[in-house]
Write a structure and sequence with these properties.
Strand order of the largest sheet: 2-3-10-5-8-11
Number of helices: 9
Number of strands: 11
Distance between the termini: 22 Å
Shape: globular
Helix content: 40-55%
Length: 281
Amino acid sequence: MPLAASGPATSSGVSALHLGPLHIVRINWGADVAVHSEHPGAVGINIPLRGELETRIRGRLVVSTPGFATVNPADTPADITRWPGTCTILGVKIDRDFVQRELWRVTGRADAVIPDQIDLRRPAAASWFRLLSSIVDQPVDDALLTNTHVAQGLAASLTDGFLLAVLPDETDDRYAVRPRIVTRVIDAIHAEPDRLWTAAEMADVAGVSVRRLQEGFRIYLGKTPRECLTEIRLAGVRAELASGSARSVTDVALKWGFTHFGRFAAAFRQRYGVPPSSLLH
């Protein structure tokens, strides 16, 4: 979402819809503008409904017109270098932690790479855009949309649909619906990443035996519960360090449940190829 704009935009038209961790806005500035955003703590998706939008992300110029969308990664500066007054966009902002949670629920991966641009003409992306458009057309004060449970459910559906639309197709069963014994544990880990989780505690959350829990994770994710716990924690540390809000690597590591810093640093370097301190701003 735009945080700072330059240009003679004095008669902008902005409407917004809030669905818990997901926010949708329709924006037309009414004049040519340039916009800079840090995208703190959220993924931003800008969809031109008319006109052309030019954005520079990590040094790469992304030009989107109707039928395409620009994706701005969380905690990554982006510059909209050209936003004409004739360009109206539909913008979607999704909380970073919510995206990560749904990414696990949908794909079983903690840090899949989301592309900078989406081709909305592809069937899966077109289907997601139709769902988004149908919700945007509802009144912002609609009784259902202002219900917390409904809003949360819609946010999850839109986020899951987005992830399924933009991530590469898989030939295996990676995107199959996860059983409750898996999703319950994943949700619990995200809610309490610093908890000293044992296999028995995770099994209690799922309501099954430890053996059944391990079988479920192996079948649907190809990993053990402990491996998933570590990946979720590492991805959380990486995202928080990259956001620029962290004071120290130690504080963030403790927050995400790492108490042995030597093992943590080694696991982080093995997964991401750099030491955690390299991401500390």
